[in-house]
Amino acid sequence: MAEQNEMLKIITPMMEHVCDHLCQFPGEISDQEEVDKICGGCQMGDHICNILNTYNRVSSSGAETLQGQAAHENMVADWKWHLTERFNRVV
Fold first, then answer.
1. What burial class does residue 75 get, using C-beta atoms within 10 Å of its C-beta: 0-12 exposed, 13-18 middle, 19+ buried?
2. Which of 3, 58, 62, 68 is exposed most, by the fewest CB atoms within 10 A?
3. How far is Cα of residue 37 from the mean position of the Cα atoms in its chain?
4. pLDDT band for position 82 (cuts 50, 70, 90)
5. What residues make up the domain containing 50?
6. Over the stretch 28-75, which tens digit does the pLDDT of each residue have?
7. Between the CA of residue 42 and those of 4, 76, 88, what are the distances in Å?
8. Residue-level pLDDT at 64
9. What string of H, E and C letters represents the secondary structure of 4-40?
10. What is the DSSP letter of 19?
């Protein structure tokens, strides 16, 4: 559980940065209710859950250190690609 709290400390600022600085909608729409509707349909929450689930799966497995490190590097590369793809389409 402490590890997940550490991951949340990493993930939360990332999500805030993406939502506050990269998402186009808060700057384009002044009606807060409309922004809330759009944010409610955003897939960012799903991506965060997938990151945390993948982290939990990788960290709880009995894999050797090198395998875990390779899996972690692949996970980071995959999510970097997913976020880049997602927000290149939005912006």
1. middle
2. 62
3. 19
4. low
5. 2-90
6. 888 989 988 988 888 888 888 888 888 877 776 654 554 656 666 677
7. 23, 21, 15
8. 52
9. HHHHHHHHHHHHHHHHHHHCCHHHHCCCHHHHHHHHH
10. I
Label residue 44 exposed, middle or buried (CB < 10 Å: 0-12, 13-18, 19+): middle
Q: Which two tokens stand for residue 31?
A: 């009606």
The CA distance from 43 to 25, in Å, is 14
The set of residues, in sequence order, having a beta carbon less than 8 Å from that of 25 and lying 6+ positions away, is 35, 38, 39
- The encoded tokens of residue 2 equal 């402490």
Distance CA 9, CA 12 (A): 6
State which amino acid sits at residue 77: A
Look at residue 15 and tell me whether its pLDDT is greater than 80: yes
